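[job 4417] fold queue: 2 targets
>>> target A
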Amino acid sequence: MPNCCTTPENGNLFIIFFNSTCEDMKTFRRKPLRKASSKAQSAMEYLMTYGWAILIISVVLAALFQLGVFNPMTFAPKAPPGACQVFRPNGPYTTSFINLEGMCSGMLPQYVAQFNPSSSPYITINVPNLPLGASQRTATVWFYVTGLPSSSQYAEYLYGYGVEYSYNAFQPYINNGGYVEINAWYTDQVVAQINTGSWCFLAYQYDGQAQIGSLGCGGGPLTTVASSRTYNTQPSPLIIGAAASGGNIDARYMNGYIANLQIYNTSLSANEIQALYLEGIGGAPIDLRHLVGWWPLNGNANDYSGNGNNGQIHNVNFVSNWYSGYTPP
């Protein structure tokens, strides 16, 4: 049985083994206990030194993302005011040789109209040839709701004309539950619920027998409803961003953004409505012969239908940072 003894030397531990004949002796040196990994220590020092910087950068990037800096729409080309318009060589409301002129490829608008209800915003337009009585019509518009109306206000209106309290106005609105409703003769009809925080497209039609509403939000498919109605719309100015009652302004103002309002004196087909939707928020009119008015609201309230129905602006702003929440169809 080998004998064993240990002796310290210079702080190191030596183990000496002796065999039974003591003829051979071997010395083995035990390695010191290993310290913590130097790489792990360096990583901890790095985190302690730069952790706050990384946190601040993360917060800044998140804020920039919320502001839309990283939205691809930010860098998409924008159409300036009046970039596309209808040319009528024979004058307003004529239909011979009419055509579109300018940049009419569906570019995003540079501006949209912003409505803040605290400042009582609206646009008034005298349009002599608006569809009245029980005549056919179509109106399409893009909108974005910043906040829903209160329970006492009940509704915020996109546009309209007629005399509301005589039950014959032609005007869509958003109720305090977030649903779009269309109405005439005060027989309201729900179209669909909007996606808050998304741009939406609304087509509102009357074909002589039924009212039809089609709504698409956030780039999703259109939802369409229809119901039999008898219209008898009376003449009045067109109001954008507030309720219309014979040209008088009702304090149920839009809270958000509106763009690209088009009005036709015919009921467009389902395929035409779908085509207008797919053109996106910067889309040009699709049926020039029946176009009554076209207000892109791209920096102004001018009518680019060639019919000269320019609007008067009351406390409406035109903003360029509108594209947060916009998804092309």
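>>> target B
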Amino acid sequence: MDNNQTFLNACRNGQKSIVQIFLKKGGIDINKRDQEGNTALYYACQKGYRDIVALLLDNDADASCINNRSESPLHAAARSGNKEILGKLLQKGVDINVTDNEGRTPLICLLDNKRTDAALFLMDQGADTEVADASGHKAIDYATAHGLREVVARLSCGNDRDARGNTPLHQAVYNGQGEIVRTLLLSDKSMLDSTNDGGETPLILACMQGNLVMVNLLLGTGADPGKAMLSGNAPIHYAAISGNRFIGEALLKAKAAVDAQNDNGETPLILAAKEGHNDFVSVLLEFHANVSISDNLQHTALYYAGERGFNEIVEKLLENGAE
């Protein structure tokens, strides 16, 4: 077998004594690549073999050599998250912000692999946290998606947005990460009522998903229960559509407008009646919803409940003065 391949395999398999034998004997290409373009150093970094990495670097292995995916040994080290290896590579002067063919930096790879300590180390060494990969995501996006609280606390800024205009708070709410939401709100409340490109606030997302815990957390921090999208749909409209009475109660107690109308003239009561949500209709009536309001088609909640055969809702509406 080719000695270069045997040497590369020894590095990949963590066989330190064999690596030492070949290095002592000499005559091998220490930067030999396999079919994927990976070198011995790449594999040693990927597997976290610190001693072998040190041996290779001491024998002038190329710390900047990239493979067929444009991944460097620094990217490989990001998989194992070994800070000592990362440090040794940086001492060799490698580019800390080198990107692979997907635009991912070593920092982004560390965060995607949930390596918090190593990511913080790389940030301390000057890694650029504002680089976006090919999908438009930055370090803060990966940290938020994976619930890495310490990194989020370090990076959080209301001005950070992904390709769709979502702030880190939008992302944390969408992913149902309560602890991350708390961390973000402690560091920067400017995101609380911010809208993404679709006009959605974090509270609207929470209502869309029917996440009562998140709704209470946002309202408790001061989220505006009445901030609506361009369509006129406010959080209470989405709560009415989903029929979650507990979210409805939380919004109404936070002074959401019980008779708010969207661009179609629909109130929460009309929407709840359309969907047949008996309990939600009851909540709205307890908060004195106007049963006589009609939408742009001049149809009331009673009309829709009757048309769709929701008899219990019809009875409740009639009992509350609907005609």
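[job 4417] complete. Note on B: The first helix runs from residue 3 to 12.
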